């Protein structure tokens, strides 16, 4: 991969002086420089309401048995005041602060101080030092890919504790869920604020910073592209890939343990949620090197959106199904359970295969076979800030010939499966599929906007060849 990247750079530089002919149709890629009023309004809305939304969902479960509309109805009918709800909410505790501090510190230690050894004995796994994509300023960052190792060590210790050592109860996460929420918020705001200050005063790479001049936009969407402390502590990889995602499976295990404690059994729905989400998380770590080529790392700057989102939104809202099942232990009939399993696995298969096809195609520069044939593609070019011209290819066969983001479609099928595992009694567990549909549709449009300004007329040729975004023939 490293050799390919170097070849790409060299090839790009070779063509540096041949750029004027296509300059008019190419833009520089990256975040918007000018903030329109709609974006600003959306950002202000999110900054104000996203933390409230997380609180509302969790509180609906802890205070109202996951009945999402009940708190609102209580407030609107005057049955309860805000203060009544707030007074019943557990506050920050020293215990939660201690747990959270130890958790994050442990993940930092695993990330920074333990070089990857998994790639030495796991065939097919790509770990250790890897290169990211070329940034808009033409930089290629190096990353220590050791997330799988961190995940394995953490989970081995978790199971060792649960079965042998008994230092703490496996229900510890559930038992401290709201106090831990305050800790996650403190870290989320702290890291976003630090990223903003760092972007102004000591950026890692000044050329990859974007200042729109709008404080809220910069805070939310980030200034620095790849903020780092020292050589290896990369904010984006750490906060995106650790403590939230490693915690995801532990949180689900803690919910399963709570079900066992409360009802002396773990329902098949809880097992399905643990297994399907576990596959998704494990897939993320197995493919962490691939993750370096996704939008989060290749295009997004690091601000509140990623910093707070990874610390709070992800661990709290992506795990709602497990939380719900603690309050409503659903035992599915065999047909329902098998249906959910098939949908989840099929969604995962599409998600992974589509991502794999693009990764293979890009890694081999199109010299590979997709579904037994040489891939079809469109040649395209783009420019970085310093005017260097690069060449790339957009695949138009395999799943990438079905739709421009069929990986999102697979992801959505998997997301729906988690929700369907919870039965049909309440809307709360369906938040995930509603959110993912909005997120991935918006992400699809955002990505296409960026690709259009990056590739110009070449992008138009591509969209003419693959006309649909998510669903062939429909959207
Ligand atoms: P993609 O992996 O689809 O990457 C999009 C990029 O791929 C484009 O910007 C472009 O980059 C390149 N590209 C687009 N079309 C082609 C093509 N035809 N051939 C080759 N390259 C192409 O998107 P994401 O990074 O958003 O998503 C990665 C995965 O992560 C997805 O499966 C998604 O479902 C999942 N995801 C999950 C989330 C969650 O919260 N659970 C959130 C977000 C994503 P370039 O500039 O290099 O050409």
From TrEMBL:
Its EC number is 1.3.1.21. The chain crosses the membrane at residues 38-58, 92-114, 148-168, 180-201, 302-320, 332-351, 415-440. This is 7-dehydrocholesterol reductase. Residues 1-25 are annotated as: Disordered. It comes from Phainopepla nitens (Phainopepla). Catalyzes the last step of the cholesterol synthesis pathway, which transforms cholesta-5,7-dien-3beta-ol (7-dehydrocholesterol,7-DHC) into cholesterol by reducing the C7-C8 double bond of its sterol core. Can also metabolize cholesta-5,7,24-trien-3beta-ol (7-dehydrodemosterol, 7-DHD) to desmosterol, which is then metabolized by the Delta(24)-sterol reductase (DHCR24) to cholesterol. GO terms for cellular component: endoplasmic reticulum membrane. The keyword NADP applies. It comes from the Eukaryota. Pfam families: ERG4_ERG24.
């Amino acid at each position: 991969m490293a050799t390919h990247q170097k070849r790409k750079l060299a090839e790009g530089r070779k063509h540096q002086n041949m750029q004027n002919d296509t300059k008019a149709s190419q833009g520089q890629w990256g975040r918007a420089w000018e903030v329109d009023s709609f974006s600003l309004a959306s950002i202000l809305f999110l900054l104000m309401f996203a933390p409230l939304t997380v609180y509302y969902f969790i509180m609906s479960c802890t205070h109202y048995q996951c009945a999402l509309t009940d708190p609102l109805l209580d407030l609107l009918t005057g049955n309860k005041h805000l203060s009544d709800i707030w007074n019943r909410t557990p506050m920050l505790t020293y215990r939660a602060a201690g747990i959270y501090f130890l958790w994050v510190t442990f993940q930092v230690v695993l990330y920074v101080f333990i070089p990857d050894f998994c790639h030495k004995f796991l065939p097919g796994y790509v770990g250790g030092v890897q290169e990211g994509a070329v940034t808009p300023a033409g930089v290629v960052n190096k990353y220590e890919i050791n997330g799988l190792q961190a995940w394995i060590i953490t989970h081995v210790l978790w199971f060792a504790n649960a079965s042998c050592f008994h230092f703490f109860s496996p229900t510890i996460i559930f038992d401290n869920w709201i106090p831990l929420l305050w800790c996650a918020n403190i870290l989320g705001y702290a890291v976003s604020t630090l990223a903003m200050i760092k972007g102004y005063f000591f950026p890692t790479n000044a050329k990859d910073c974007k200042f729109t001049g709008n404080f809220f936009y910069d805070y939310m969407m980030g200034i620095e592209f790849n903020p780092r402390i020292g050589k290896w502590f990369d904010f984006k990889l750490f906060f995106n890939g650790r403590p939230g995602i490693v915690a995801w499976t532990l949180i689900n295990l803690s919910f399963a343990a709570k079900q066992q404690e409360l009802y002396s059994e773990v329902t098949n729905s809880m097992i399905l949620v643990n297994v399907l989400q576990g596959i998704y998380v494990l897939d993320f770590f197995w493919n962490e090197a691939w993750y370096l080529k996704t939008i989060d790392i290749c295009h997004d700057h690091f601000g509140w959106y990623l910093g707070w989102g990874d610390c709070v939104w992800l661990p709290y809202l992506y795990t709602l199904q497990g939380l719900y099942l603690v309050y409503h232990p659903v035992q599915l009939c065999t047909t329902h359970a098998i249906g959910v399993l098939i949908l989840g696995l099929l969604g995962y298969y599409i998600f992974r295969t589509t991502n794999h096809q693009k990764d293979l195609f890009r890694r081999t520069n199109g010299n590979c076979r997709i579904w037994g044939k040489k891939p079809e593609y469109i040649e395209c070019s783009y420019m970085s800030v310093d005017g260097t011209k690069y060449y790339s290819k957009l695949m138009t066969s395999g799943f990438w010939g079905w739709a421009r983001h069929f990986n999102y479609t697979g992801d959505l099928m998997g997301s729906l499966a988690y929700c369907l595992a919870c039965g049909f009694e309440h809307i709360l567990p369906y938040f995930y599929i509603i959110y993912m549909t909005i997120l991935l549709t918006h992400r699809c449009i955002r990505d296409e906007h960026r690709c259009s300004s990056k590739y110009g007329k070449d992008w138009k040729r591509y969209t003419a060849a693959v006309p649909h975004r998510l669903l062939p023939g429909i959207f």
